[in-house]
Design goal:
The protein has 270 residues and is an all-alpha fold. The protein is built from 14 helices and no strands. Helix 9 crosses helix 10. The C terminus is likely disordered. InterPro entries: MetI-like, MetI-like_sf.
């Protein structure tokens, strides 16, 4: 019991380390220029909306938002479907070199993404997909991490249920859709959210494979906003950053209980 106050103090300290920069971003987005450069720092803003208006006008954020939404929705859907089908095959089907192929999937998780940038770019360029949604989405539809999470979770499900579905004459797709996925909702939501955040925040690939403002995404749009406004307009830059951050932060807050349940379900069964 005596250690509990110390635990609370440590938790508050750790929370401050993580939430402090987020609060500073949020407050700066609502500050006027005089408050931003005030010393000592002003921790409570005057709540002006001018920074958001300036950010929206300084760069075509409406187009950036549309592009990011299309890429995130389509990319997440394709990546999750691919991961679910692959994970089901590794968990329930028998085929030659199954373990070797799964070890190759695990090996793909250890390869830095930047290693594949040049081969992917050359492939996309040869297909004429530069500056297109196909070029932005298709090269990233495979996810070793999502496949690993789903496969490990499928292995924890009771085999009696899938065996009963097979006895009833259900094929693999029907078993997956009617039996396995309903039992895997927390993990599935976890994979969807993690994948969506990854797609939404992707910066390097959209920067490389697009060359016009009409195809840029929100993270790249922040770079354009910074170049437009320079280092002086931090209120405008922070307002633009908040516009990029807010949708994924909202989704995470809504789905956090599923994420915790999905991660704790997943595991170590091999």
């Amino acid at each position: 019991m005596k250690a509990r106050p110390i635990q609370y103090v440590l938790l508050v300290a750790v929370a401050a380390v993580f939430l402090g920069p987020l609060y500073w971003l949020l407050s700066t987005a609502f500050k006027d220029p005089a408050q931003i450069y005030q010393w000592p720092p002003a921790w409570w803003p005057h709540f002006t909306w001018e920074n958001f208006s300036l950010a929206w006008k300084a760069a075509p954020f409406d187009r950036f938002f549309l592009n990011s939404t299309i890429i995130t929705v389509a990319g997440t859907a394709l990546k999750v479907v691919n991961a679910v089908l692959t994970a089901y095959a590794f968990a329930y089907l028998r085929f030659p070199f199954k373990k070797i192929l799964f070890f190759l999937v695990l090996g793909a998780m250890m390869v830095p993404g930047h290693v594949t940038l040049l081969p992917n770019y050359l492939t996309v360029a040869s297909l004429g997909w530069i500056n297109t949604y196909a070029g932005l989405i298709i090269p990233g539809i495979g996810s070793a991490f999502a496949t690993f999470l789903m496969r490990q979770h499928f292995l924890t499900l009771p085999t009696e249920v899938t065996d009963a579905a097979a006895v009833d004459g259900a094929g693999h797709l029907r078993t997956l859709w009617r039996v396995v996925l309903p039992m895997s909702q927390p993990m599935l939501i976890t994979v969807v959210v993690i994948t969506a955040v990854e797609e939404w925040n992707n910066f390097v690939w959209p920067l490389i494979v697009t060359n016009t403002a009409s195809m840029r995404t929100l993270p790249v749009g922040l770079l354009i906003l910074k170049d437009e406004e320079g280092l002086a307009a931090w209120g405008t830059i922070m307002a633009g950053t908040l516009l990029v951050l807010a949708p994924m932060l909202l989704i995470f807050l809504i789905a956090q209980r599923y994420i915790v349940g999905g991660i704790t379900q997943g595991a170590l069964k091999g």
